[in-house]
Amino acid sequence: MNKHHESTGPADEQQITLRGPAELADALPYLMGFYPNDSVVMVALHGGRGRFGGRLRLGIPQSPQEWPSTAEQLAECLVKGSERRGERPEAIVIFLCQDPADGEDPGRVMERLRPLAQRLRTACGALDVPVLEALCISGGRYWSYCCPDPRCCPAGGNSLSLPGTSVMAAAATYAGIQVRGSLREMEARLTPLKTPSVADQPQALDSAGAALVPRILDEGGRKEVARETLVLARALMKRLREAPTTAPSAADIQDDSLISHDEAAAVILGLQDRETRDKAAEWMEGPEAESALRLWRALSRRCVGPYGEHAAAPLTLAGWVSWSTGDEPGARVALGLALRADPEYTFAQLLHQACNQGLDPETLRRCLRGERSHRTDRSAVPRAVRPPTVRRKRAQPGSVRPGTAVARRRARESRAEGRGGAKSGRQP
Prior knowledge:
Elements: E1 6-8, H1 20-32, E2 39-46, E3 51-59, H2 67-84, E4 91-97, H3 106-126, E5 131-138, E6 141-144, E7 158-159, H4 167-175, H5 183-188, H6 201-216, H7 219-242, H8 248-257, H9 261-270, H10 274-280, H11 287-301, H12 312-324, H13 328-341, H14 346-356, H15 362-379, H16 402-417
Parallel strand pairs: 4-5
Antiparallel strand pairs: 1-3, 2-3, 2-4, 5-6, 6-7
Helix pairs in contact: 1-4, 2-3, 6-7, 6-9, 7-9, 7-10, 7-11, 11-12, 12-13, 12-14, 13-14
């Protein structure tokens, strides 16, 4: 379950009137930017005419025992978040989206989730915000938990409109709003590969760790590894950019074939250094952004086996580039996966919060541009006029040596399992 909620601020206002459960259900993918699988979605409504405001998504908790606390937290998060943005919701719309399991009837899904819908309605009511509508969407059909009239909301549910035929679809097409597929499909582009072709990737990561960790323990070696990581990443971006254009469905497969196991391992491990990752984050706009995003996605897919936590770095970079280039749904998916890989990854936490609060990424872009400009200016100063420095055998503040992380992880694993063994270090 994804334990990190996703929310957005109010979208640009456009006069679209949605009438009844059917049009609300059809509008959901356009409100979110994708089809939310296995999700609770809550949307705030403002004003007398019910203008859409903030929206929030969370994976449906598998255990019903989690539903009461989850409902309270979600209701409070949406209401308080809307208040921080300056406008308390007048009402809330709830969507419960879950596909049937093998052999399960969609109507059974609706009944199984009914207690969760009631918990959410009660939690919102406790905050004096009524739930205008609560819908279950499953197996291409929808049900209302609020409407008792069988003439419009029969017990067997109603079929969803064909994709692209609703009022919202027409308005979204006119406004240039895209639906990027399902949440499951978006996550698949960022999660570890399960094909036979990556069977040797863990060994490549082991070998790269054995070679890089001793060098990173030395201050001069750490800087050299950082330089090599960025040079290799740029070379891979150039390779991806120059590859023949292919269909979107085959693009990821092509990108995976263009990066060797050893190359992927070297960059993945190099990005565990915070300063190296921050420099890579500067590839966030212009012609660099597209190839950088492709690279970060490909590297996220290579964090297989025991190296799953290492995906936090490339996933966070993928989320940052997506947000910087205007793809907020893609950003929230990538950042949510980064926090799933490592809930304590600070950079992902900060970006996830900023994106959810509707902040402008230009503030961070200016900061990164300034860092790059400052670094360029410093490199232009002749070495002869630089003041002498004392080289110390310790990492810069805020950096964590892989060796230290290895020791900490080895100690934890030894206590938990009675045995040692760890992979190369990583840091938030």
